[in-house]
Amino acid sequence: MLPTTPLPHYPHHRELLLEDKQFFDELFRELQPRISELTFAGLYLFRAPHSYRVSYLDGSVMVSGAGYDGRPHFLPPLGGERRGAARRILRDGWEIYGADEELAKALSLNREVTAEEDRDNFDYVYLRRDLAELAGNRYHKKKNRIAYFTKRHEFITKRYETAHRDGSLALLEQWRQVHDKLGSSSLPSETAATAEALTRWEELGLEGVVLLVGGEVRAFALGERLNDTTALCHFEKGDPFLEGISQLVNREFSRTLFADCEFINREQDLGEPNLRQAKLSYHPLELVKKYRIRSEDKAKGGNYHHDS
């Protein structure tokens, strides 16, 4: 299918629109991506902080954007003759972010092209069953923290519905106030994207769980399907003053949703030490590598024309 509002041809481009969802859903269903950025909801919810724009090039769908540091890039070409499209944007001075190993190796055969592993953005992939069951000694600390919580609080797990929105938004604000003191550069965009996801979850095809304690939302998690075998957890927030609830909502998300998926992708750590330690403590099955690719003889950020 084609998008309702046509995509301009590179170097022209336009903004990502909500009406593009069906088009991108079908594209990703065909491509079966493994990196966490490649879902429509993920792109749409972070369209503002990353300045996502879309276009066509040689039969490939192109998505340009920028990192939290303002560094401009393209995501890997989607569909079509992606190597040819990638070579074109590299010649024009653009960097490619989020390339898989196959594309990185193919493009770096050119001596003027460099491909570097981007460890801070590797995705953490787990066996869903491991997170749902927490079996064995290696999850002993997780089970202890959950037990600490459940001995002190009665809770109910529910699938996320619009009736949970206001309580979840209130919890998100509480979470933001606590984390604001840590000075994370990504906190404002993370908070805004989470709030929009809680509000537009049905339109975006998201699913989630909430933990109710005393009838109030004290934790939630939202995600979606990344590919046929992998679920993706986009957002997970818990009451920062209830010890063990973060481990519990992680388990409940894995138990309750996407039972037909073998794996769960829990996205990257962005180089934040505490987040990295937390993700590693769940013993990932795999870290999905992402590469940054650039042409050494070109300046960053080629000519790109806004059509909207």
Reconstruct the topology from this structure:
Layout lengths: L11 E4 L5 H11 L8 H6 L7 E5 L2 E7 L5 E3 L7 H10 L4 E4 L1 H7 L5 E5 L5 E5 H6 L6 H13 L2 E5 L5 H15 L7 H13 L1 H4 L2 E7 L2 E12 L2 E9 L6 H12 L6 E3 L7 H8 L5 E3 L2 E5 L9 E2 L2
Parallel strand pairs: 1-15, 11-12
Antiparallel strand pairs: 1-2, 2-3, 3-4, 5-14, 6-14, 7-12, 7-13, 8-9, 9-10, 10-11
Structure description:
- This protein is an alpha+beta fold and 308 residues long.
- The protein has 2 domains: 12-122 and 290-306, Gcn5-related N-acetyltransferase (GNAT) (Aminopeptidase), CATH 3.40.630; 123-288, Gcn5-related N-acetyltransferase (GNAT) (Aminopeptidase), CATH 3.40.630.
- 34% of the residues lie in helices and 26% in strands.
- It contains 11 helices and 15 strands.
- The protein has a 7-stranded mixed beta sheet with strand order 8-9-10-11-12-7-13, with helices on both faces.
- Strand 2 and strand 3 form a beta hairpin.
- Helix 7 packs antiparallel against helix 8.
- It is globular.
- The mean pLDDT is 95.
